[in-house]
Amino acid sequence: MAGYLLKNCAAVIVDEGKGPTVYRDVDVLTNGPAIQSIGENLGAGDLLNGTITQDATGWFVYPGLINTHHHFFQCFVRNRADLDWTKLSVIEWLDRIYPIFSRLNEDCFYHSSLTAMAELIKHGCTTAFDHQYNFPRHAGKRLIDRQFEAADLLGMRFHAGRGGNTLPKSEGSTIPDEMLETTDEFIDDCARLIDTYHDAGEFSMRQVVVAPCQPVNCYRETFVEAVALARDRRVMMHTHVGEGESPVVEARHGMRTVDYLDKLGFAGPDAFYAHCWELTHDELRNMAASGTGVSHCPEPVYLVGAEVTDIPAMSAFGLRVGLGCDGAASNDNSNLMHCLHSAYMLQCLASSTRVHPVPPPADFLGYATTGGASLLGRQDIGRLAPGMAADLFAIDTRRMDYVGTRHDPLSLIARVGIGMPTDMTMINGRIVWQKGEFIGLDEAQLFAEAEEALATVEF
Questions:
Q1: Which of 49, 262, 426, 445 is the residue whose CA sits 20 to 30 A from 357?
Q2: What CA–CA distance (Å, rounded) separates 366 from 356?
Q3: How many CB atoms neighbour CB 380 within 10 A?
């Protein structure tokens, strides 16, 4: 694979490490998996043999979005009136939905992963982290192996969060016995996946994250062993924090979740938490001091009805912040670009209740790009500059949708929103989606196979 020359881009969001800048009327040249140059009038002298020239007139070119929290398997419970948050209490909802999750088979995990990743790619996401914590006994242990298979098919850069639950429902968790594992089972499979798939090299397409589901559903030893393994193998750690569980954790362990995890060592620059909407300012300051990051998932706020996460405070305290879709149990789409818009609008809605001002809309693009790269421990993705991974997406703005908006590409997605798929998505220097098609794949066939797998689930 030589590369591509994107010719006559209307705007390119460039960041050489000092913050994003808009370059107007320039070309982008890729070489294999990397960006070679960005500038005016790149021509024959800059090209390698086999370089493909692509007319990019009218295109706004953005760094690929990075999704830092999802549950792909939940794509099979979308848009169901019988699972409507507004008609059920949280406990009723959990009691209804977890038995459904426990009936999924291996093929369901594969096809739901394809479904989620395909939607992510269509909307500009080039790197996805999935928190796969559901391991029904009958489905076996090769569920994340199948996720890597799905990512390979679509060309997605994939970070697999190997989750798990170890605390029985009889001892206070919400997890059915069919979804439980022992700590040894969980740790052993984390180690197997790291040995089999984890690639820490530049432009890696496969990484593994040690990710016990959440403190309320796991024994203390599960987190202790997770920290030991992750630090030994030098991989990232992830879990759910600040979703209303802190009083439960305090009743069990004598301290709220952030302090509990910090004491166990499950904190620091190699750790990031999902959600964190219930945390106090002191807890956020402590996380910032330790270097622990936050994956903010804005769209579940609509369905769950919880308070809006205090992103202005997180920004003011210097926390590392990324964005996530979350699973379809609390967000019925896998569209991170839509989440970017939602994140900004929700903060504007809650601004009158905040001590700190809402960050500018361009910062929200940063959360979904450089912020996400930071959470995942990556320095080779998240921004467009020579030497960085050629992960990007393009929007042809020569449409009525964009009249009056084109003067500010940095704020466009957060303030206006993008209501359609990208015109092109490139991952690791390869175009995987263009002109409404997955390159080399039959979407109709993928759809039919996913629907067939879905039909095997008993609701």
A1: 262
A2: 18
A3: 16
The pLDDT tens digits of the residues spanning 396-429 come to 999 999 999 999 999 999 999 999 999 999 999 9
Domains, the chain, with CATH or none: 4-63+383-438 (2.30.40.10), 65-375 (3.20.20.140)
Q: Are 424 and 417 in contact (CB under 8 A)?
A: no
State the Cα–Cα distance between residues 222 and 175, nearest whole angstrom: 15
pTM for the predicted model, two decimal places:
0.97
Residue 233: Cβ within 10 Å count: 15
Torsion of CA 175, 178, 184, 187, to 10 degrees: -70
Structure tokens that stand for 181 in this block: 């594992």
Burial string for 287-312 (b: 16+ CB within 10 Å, else e) reads bbeebbbbbbbbbbbebbebebbbbb
Residue numbers of the chain with a pLDDT score lower than 50: none
Sign of CA dihedral 249, 254, 256, 258: negative
Is-contact 441 153, C-beta < 8 A?
A: yes
